[in-house]
Amino acid sequence: MEDTIAAISTALGVGAISIIRVSGKDAIKIVNKIFKGKDLEKVPSHTIHYGHIINNEEIVDEVLISVMLSPKTFTTEDTVEINCHGGIATTNKVLELLLVNGCRLAEAGEFTKRAFLNGRIDLTQAEGVMNLIEAKTESSRALALNQVDGKVSKLVKDLRQEILEVLANIEVNIDYPEYEDIEVFTNEMLFPMLTKIKKAILKILNESENGKILQDGIKTCIIGKPNVGKSSLLNSLLNEEKAIVTDIEGTTRDIVEGKISLDGVTLNIIDTAGIRETNDVVESIGVEKSRKMMDEADLVLFVLNNNDEINSEEKKILDSLKNKTHIVIINKKDLESKINLNDLDGHDYIFISAFKNEGIDDLKDKIKELFNLEQILTNDMTYLTSARSISLLKQSLESLNDIESGLKQEYPIDILEIDLKNIWNKLGEIIGETYEEELIDQLFSQFCLGK
Amino acid sequence: MNYEIIVVGGGHAGCEAAYSCSKIGHNTLLITGNIKNIADMPCNPSIGGSAKGIVVREIDALGGVMGKVADRSQIQMKMLNSAKGPAVQALRAQADKITYPKEMLKELNSIDKLEIKEAMVKDLIVEDNKVKGVILEDESKIYAAAVILTTGTYLKADILVGDTRRREGPHGELPSNYLSDNLKKLGFKIIRLKTGTPQRIDKKTIDFSKTKIEKGSDEHYSFSFDINPTYDIEKQVPCHLVYTTPETHKIINENLNKSSMYGGLDDIKGVGPRYCPSIEDKIVRFKDKERHQLFLEPESLYYDDIYIQGFSTSMPYDVQEKMVHSLPGLENAKILKYAYAIEYDAIYPTQLKQNLETKIIENLFTAGQINGTSGYEEAACQGLMAGINACLKIENKEPFILKRNEAYIGVLIDDLVTKGVRDPYRLLTSRAEYRLLLRHDNADLRLREYGYKYGLIDEDRYQKLVEKKKIINDSINYLKETKITPKKEVLPYLEKLNTAALKDSITLYDFLKRPEITLEKLTPFHNLNLEPNIAKQIEIEIKYDGYIKKAMIEAEKLNNLEKKNIPNDIDYDKIKNLASEAKQKLKEVKPTTVAQAARISGVNPADISILMVYLKKEYAHESR
After folding, report:
1. Under 8 Å between Cβ of B274 and B421
2. For residues A440 and B612, what is the distance between their CA atoms, to the nearest angstrom?
3. What is the DSSP string of A4-54?
4. pLDDT single digits (tens) B363-387
5. Which of A82, B16, B365, B604 is the most exposed place for a label (fewest CB within 10 A)?
6. Which pLDDT score, from 0 to 100, does residue B339 have?
7. How many CA atoms lie within 13 A of B314 on its CB side?
8. Which of residues 87-146 of B touch A (CB under 8 A)?
9. Does pLDDT of A278 surpass 60?
10. B 286-325 → A contacts, CB under 8 A
11. b/e per residue, A116-138, with b = 16+ CB within 10 A?
12. What are phi and psi of B429, to 5 degrees?
């Protein structure tokens, strides 16, 4: 077997630990690329290791990794199993990283198929293996179809058509170089095309992020100095929605302590431990600690005291919030205001009284506005959420970068076209459209050629 | 005389087949309807072109004849896409239609083991699904161990002009009336295809001052790796470019119902090629296009016919007169031959194995237009491959199959036998996945070894190849080891080269990756004394290294599946989990490897998985 394959091998359920299985000759090498901890290429077979999955230094999940060397594994190939703790979104993200780094998403029943082909499963079980592949293919086909429907599929289709026209133009220049009426597609003409593709792909990726929000909720953190009213805010949000407060102990880094349902979308309040700290000896926010929490969150609620001037630490936090989705909450609005609103220039802010339960609706409206929830929900769009699609889009972006650097190196258009064709193929995989003669048909319908 | 191999048809496929079989050493008989028509070029007077030019190089690398015959008969050479990358450059020759067949006949006559006979074949002698020879129209029988059919467009050929249909081969030649029906009786699925050819005009009646001149390249080129071209570039014969006029379009639109294809005849079954539609097709399909480009190409130095490329039609003669006279410079042109469309029978090519042997009749091979292709080069390369494989078959040896990453020839044959055809198949660069590997410049490095192995390349030429490979390898290693350092005495020279300043010392190999740097410009820094074509080869290898490696990795993945064979006796009906569409396609194509199975449209990855599990279960003792 040549490819290294990966897939989530446990049912995706909320709160459960998910296991990603990786099998193939590069399994250990690929996982090692995204793992911070021991060097997995040097550990003994059949051992388990603690560490983090990282994406360019950024921690994605805290994991346990089992390394099993060939041949004593299910598939008889080198196998790595990653125990993820971070919920569906995080597990998907880990899978996506594996795919971007050289794994291929396993086909339906492929682990079993490999186990069989490699002699791990008895020959008498062949029928069973074939039945399994057939059954799994049916269900995954239905699933895949659901995942990319509607708007995303249309975006991808339109983009592919545009690329196809350019490809046909380049091909026709190659196969019919003497047709003077046909525009010669040059390197320069690629630039606007590349910008357009990039924009479109980023847009699709962005839609997929929204999709994650629908599915997995918005990770929200509440920060602010002690006694500013974080706990009251949390409580009034929770009371308001009669949400369940859970207390999951675990080894994971985000402990979701409160879930608030906002018109069907979940706000996951993380690290409430920090909020409930009653250590009021030091009147400090702890800029470093806040920053760490902010990094992990989709939404930051930064609470200020209306009755206090904004101190230098708070100003620092405000500064670092600039590139983050956030709302400044000025609590204790019934007290005298000592806040200089000029300091909040460029920030969304609202006044509330957590104690009197006032302004909470405004806050909720603001959140909905920030995440475009009204639009997401009313349009009833189906979003692109699968790790496979996201990794295909990211690979397309990489090919795009290759074209850009090729342009700088002044490679001829027919060479740059290789990566453009790549992007077109990858996009085709997302919507399940790869039709052999598509390009040639386009060639002869777009251009008039003859003998 | 006892023949081992019979080749039926003396066109471009037949010539290569007959040449290779006899050259390899088997007694071969070439049967043709008309000896004078051997290697005739009934359509355009050129050999090569985009992708096709690379095929001619591949034929030469393998030891076929088309390349050297084209070199000897060319009256203009042009390197196409010379401003583009090395992967898509391809050579085209305007070939003299008198010289080319003569030179080809000379080649064929030079081989003792080849005999040529003028006759028409009407049937095959078949025993136990194995071909034993042919039956001629006079009922006489000729026996042989293998038969190669290269009948071109002659099977039940019909010439179509306006509302007339005549049973006739190209240019009034005799068609083959019985063979395709007899093939049908043997169980072959026969399809009907169509193509066409434009008018020929008397050169003396054209006012060339109203046209644009199109010259050949001003460097020397040859198809053959064994020829050092020395022709006089000044004496290259030019082509000329003209455009259709609004008057031309008006004439065609007004007379559309008179064209055979547009109502003149209502019994047309042949499927015409998408890539070379008739002029009426173009005007109907591209209504908004104000003009269409036409090339006036000389057919020969020995007569005055000028071929109008782009003007093929099936209009009646009187309309053709008006059409031609509406073109600038051709107002008073005299038409020497009228344009026509031709319909003919072909074998649906998925009935062939990868070695071009038919699946239902053993030792019967087919090559060229009978397999649904179009073009001289496409035909010739199939002829060569069928010839080599017929020899291997009767010698009980493994077949010779070129992979898609080895040659355009491999792409072409795999496409034919795996996907079939909808219309006459033309090779295009876009059909190849790895065209950066399949270049004009490296055809000898890719394929000559095979030519040597199968006995078509002699020791002398083979040693030259070995030497060339060594020079390339040694030079690249040398360039990797030799450094250039930004010293005082070096800097002014580099500045003159218009390249970014050098900060640290760098190997010549890496320095050559800069687009503006060539080996010649670096002469002061190395002691390599290379022939220009070898220097170019080395530069390509270095400058495109990243892309070449990527392509090779992709190709390697494919080759792994290529190694997984599917046994001949597999019964797809026994695999119950296969989707029914996949089952039907697999039964039709009978792929020989899992990779080929995966390329069949309608066979999806799950079917391939199931197939692999089944193979393992049924043939476990063989596969591992």
Report:
1. no
2. 31
3. -EEEE-S---TTS-EEEEEESTTHHHHHHHTEESS-TTSSPSSEEEEEEEE
4. 999 999 999 999 999 999 999 999 9
5. B604
6. 94
7. 29
8. 87-88
9. no
10. 286, 289, 291-293, 295, 309-310, 312
11. bbbebbeeeebeebbebbbebbe
12. -60, -30
Is residue B612 less than 8 Å (CB to CB) from chain A?
yes
Q: Cα–Cα distance between B416 and B424 in angstroms, integer?
A: 10
Shortest alpha-carbon distance between residue B290 and chain A (Å): 10
Calculate what percentage of chain B has a pLDDT beyond 70: 98
Q: Is the CB of A109 inside 8 Å of chain B's CB atoms?
A: yes
The CA distance from B314 to B194, in Å, is 11
Q: What is the mean pLDDT of residues B254-273?
A: 79
- Is 3.40.50.880 the CATH number for A5-147? no
Rg of chain A (C-alpha set): 26
pLDDT number for residue B178: 93
From chain B residues 350-409, the ones with a CB under 8 A of any chain A CB are none
What is the distance of C-alpha B401 from the center of its chain? 16
DSSP B234: G
DSSP-derived letter for residue B574 is G
Domain ranges (residues) in chain A: 5-147, 154-210+385-446, 216-373
Cβ A84 vs Cβ A20: under 8 Å: yes
Q: What six digits make up the tokens of B589? A: 């194509």
Answer whether A9's CB lies under 8 Å from A19's CB. Answer: yes
Query: How confident is the model over B41-95, as pLDDT tens digits?
Result: 999 999 999 999 999 999 999 999 999 999 999 999 999 999 899 999 999 999 9
A150: left (phi over 0), alpha (psi -120 to 50) or beta: left
Residues on chain A touching B550 (C-beta within 8 angstroms): 418
ipTM for the complex shown: 0.88
Structural domains present in chain B: 200-343 (2.40.30.260), 468-550 (1.10.10.1800), 563-623 (1.10.150.570)
Token pair 């979308």: residue: A265
Count of Cβ atoms closer than 10 Å to residue B553 Cβ: 9
Query: Between A121 and B460, whose confidence is greater?
Result: B460
Are the beta carbons of B617 and A126 closer than 8 angstroms?
Answer: yes
Could you tell me if B606 lies within 8 Å of chain A, comparing CB atoms?
A: yes
Q: Which of A314-323, B467-476, B510-519 has the highest mean pLDDT?
A: B467-476
Do the chains contact at B614 and A116, CB–CB below 8 Å? no
| B381 Cβ contact list (under 8 Å, min separation 6) | B16, B55, B58, B59, B64, B408, B409, B412
Instruction: DSSP letter for B415, please.
Output: H
CA distance A434 to chain B (A): 10
* The CATH fold of domain A154-210+385-446: Four Helix Bundle (Hemerythrin (Met), subunit A) (1.20.120)
Q: Which fold has domain A216-373?
A: Rossmann fold (3.40.50)
Interface mutation vs chain A, best among B613, B617, B619, most A CBs within 10 Å: B613
Determine whether the interchain pair B616/A107 forms a contact, defined as Cβ–Cβ distance below 8 Å: no
Burial class (CB in 10 A: 0-12, 13-18, 19+), B230: exposed
Question: Distance (Å) from the C-alpha of residue B490 to the closest C-alpha of chain A?
Answer: 24
Do B597 and B603 contact (CB within 8 A), yes or no?
A: yes
User: What single DSSP character describes residue B333?
Assistant: P
pLDDT over threshold 70, residue A259: no
The whole model's pTM is what? 0.81
CB count within 10 Å of CB B321 equals 17
For B292, residues 6+ apart whose C-beta sits below 8 A from its C-beta are A181, A448, A450, B243, B244, B279, B282, B283, B310
- Residue pLDDT, tens place only, B180-238: 999 999 999 999 999 989 999 999 999 999 999 999 999 999 999 999 999 999 999 99
